[in-house]
Amino acid sequence: MLFRPPWVYRPQSDTWLLARALTDAGIPRGGHVLDVCTGSGALAIAAVRNGAAAITAVDISRSAAASAWLNCRMRGIGAEVIRGDFASVLHGRRFDLVLANPPYVPAPESAHRGAARAWDAGERGRGALDRLCGMMPGLLKPRGAALVVHSMLSDPDSTLTQLRDAGLKAAIVARHTVPFGRVLRGRADWLVAAGLIEPGQDREDLVVIRADRIRQ
User: Fold this and answer.
1) Domain map of the chain by residue range?
2) What phi and psi values does residue 79 have, to the nearest 5 degrees?
3) Facing residues of 35 across strands?
């Protein structure tokens, strides 16, 4: 069980898809892992179970950062937990592995407060993803890798293109179809009008994209 206040993102299909992709990835044990947009810390915990020697977890939400810290400590994990925007607090730091479940849900307006910060990501769902893609080469050590989960609604081709253009090897390594949750059901009409889904569509594909730094 994870301690999680109601306004902290609940681990769900995207979390567990990324955790399975991590297990399947064959990442060497003993590295330093960054968990971006950690939420409850579920993926930080999964990283330790997969052999990580050190964890840095980041979230812009004070409640999420506190939850991740507590959940790690309850399991004897001495994670470094940083509260802040990942684009502001990680400059100059490099990691062996980056895990990311960032906000990626398309929204009429990006949310700037409350629980919606954990999922709303601008009109194309790329508010956080584009910034993360731009930072990724600088976050990875030589031979480092990243695993990023998001929805097909958020244009994974753009993620792949940006990562490859930055000199990283990138590919989709996992995919899973899930029914729309409460948030997408509630804005289905807007998603249709925005051209992001078809009329009557009620399911989305989640994907995990792996990026590897192949240049020194």
Assistant:
1) 13-213
2) -70, 145
3) 57, 99
Place of tokens 């990023």: 148
Residues sharing a CB contact under 8 Å with residue 184, sequence separation 6 or more, in sequence order = 105, 191, 204
> Which tokens go with 146?
């990243």
Q: What is the mean pLDDT of the chain?
A: 93
The pLDDT value given to residue 147: 98
Report the pLDDT value the prediction gives residue 216, as an integer from 0 to 100: 61
Q: pLDDT digits over 11-32, tens only?
A: 999 999 999 999 999 888 999 9
- CATH tag, 13-213: 3.40.50.150
CA dist 47 and 99 (Å) reads 9
Residue for token digits 């029914």?
179
Tokens describing residue 99:
């895990």
Backbone dihedral angles phi then psi of residue 3, each to the nearest 5 degrees: -70, 130
pTM over 0.70: yes
Position 111 pLDDT exceeds 60: no
Distance CA(128)–CA(120), nearest Å, equals 9
Are 53 and 34 spatial neighbours (Cβ–Cβ below 8 Å)?
no
Contact status, residue 117 vs residue 60, Cβ threshold 8 Å: yes
Neighbouring C-beta atoms of residue 101, cutoff 10 Å: 27
* Identity of the amino acid at 21: A
Q: Where are the alpha helices (DSSP H) in 90-167?
A: 127-139, 156-165
Gyration radius from the chain CA atoms: 16
